[in-house]
Amino acid sequence: MVGIAIICVFFLLLILMLFIDRSISVVARERLYDSISEVPSVKTALVLGTSRYRPGGKTNLYFRYRIEAAKALFDAGKVRYLLVSGDNARKSYNEPVEMRQALVEMGVPIDRIVLDYAGFRTLDSVVRCQEVFGQDHFIIVSQRFHNERALYIARHFGIDAVAFNAKDVGGYSGRRIRGREYFARVKALLDLHFFHTGPRFLGETVEIPE
Question: How far apart are CA 146 and CA 169, in angstroms?
Answer without folding.
Answer: 12
